[in-house]
Amino acid sequence: MNDRKGRFVSHPDDDATVIEGHAGADYYALMTEATRQLLIERGLLIQSDIDAVIASLEAPRPEWGAMIVARAWRDDAYRARLLADGSGAAAEMGFRIKEAQLVVVENSPTLHNLVVCTLCSCYPRSLLGQPPWWYISKSYRARAVREPRRVLAELGLVIPPEVELRVHDSNADMRYLVLPMAPADSGTLDEAALAKLVTRDAMIGASLAGKDATMPFGRSKPHG
Amino acid sequence: MIVFGKQEVMVSGLLRGYHDVGGRPAGPVEKTTHPFQPWQKTGEAMRVALELKSRLVSLDELRRGFESFGAELYSSLGFYERRAEALTVLLDEKGVLRRDEIVARMREIAAGRGQSVDFATRTVR
Prior knowledge:
Strand order of the largest sheet of chain A: 1-4
Radius of gyration of chain A: 20 Å
Number of helices of chain A: 12
Radius of gyration of chain B: 17 Å
Shape of chain A: globular
Largest sheet of chain B: 3 strands, antiparallel
CATH class of the largest domain in chain A: Alpha Beta
CATH superfamily of the largest domain in chain A: Nitrile hydratase alpha /Thiocyanate hydrolase gamma
Distance between the termini of chain B: 40 Å
CATH class of the domain at 2-18 and 38-94 in chain B: Mainly Alpha
Number of strands of chain A: 4
Number of domains of chain A: 2
CATH topology of the domain at 2-18 and 38-94 in chain B: Cyclin A, domain 1
Strand order of the largest sheet of chain B: 1-2-3
Order of helices and strands of chain B: EEEHHHHHEE
Strand content of chain B: 5-15%
Shape of chain B: globular
CATH superfamily of the domain at 2-18 and 38-94 in chain B: Nitrile hydratase, beta subunit
Structural class of chain A: alpha/beta
Oligomer: heterodimer
Order of helices and strands of chain A: HHHHHHEEHHHHEEHH
Structural class of chain B: mainly alpha
CATH topology of the largest domain in chain A: Nitrile Hydratase, Chain A
């Protein structure tokens, strides 16, 4: 918790405030079913309305974001447009970001970016699909802005102390996508092969691109 | 100053909502995954469909729902459970579906499955 001047002080009860509870899922599954039946009976929805939205929730996937990243790695002009206007550059490739402005942040040998949504769960769902469970957990939301290096280490990514770490807190109007660095040995690959090196977590900043997550920090920047 | 569980929280003179967890201490980040359950998809889809069809429930309203239904409930529920609870609160508030209608239907469905609902502890058995 914070004291009167906004300084951070520990409090014995703090832990209790951010434990994620999952008890009661059956109860809420039942509540959802009851609500669905009643909404349909009252003519407020028909089942196909619900099914259509479910299909649109299920379609986006990390591979879509990976295609954007791979294009940016191979095409400097596209990369510049992507960094200037994420939503516009995504639309060029046929991906419509429906929920908010897409802001793309670029990793470099001296800068690593990490995305969080401390207030809720904002995430570019219409591009990447549903966020990983840890992203919406209260532990991640609480700690990513306080001790991001420690959190990343727990997720398996050690950021060297000399590399700057920037944490981006998403909100209702802005969704972030991390443009990771191209793996060192990816120079001859085409876009389709490059896209396979880009994972969901790399686009959140929780891992690096490439099969082997050895640290590429310190080597020369792929795009000069 | 607001009371958050047993705590009183004040940040630079501003009220801090219980959902505003950024910077608070918490346990380890678990990298476990849970499947996106059918009921969770249905819950999300109903809310979006209601917005698309008749602008009945916006995402901002849903957030206002779970960001004001109380710290105790918020901290005891998981992500999708929170949203399901907030949808019920909003539909009731707007006079679309009363909570007692939803509760009655929950009882009915549970009974049909040979189950009963304990509304105090939010469990089905």
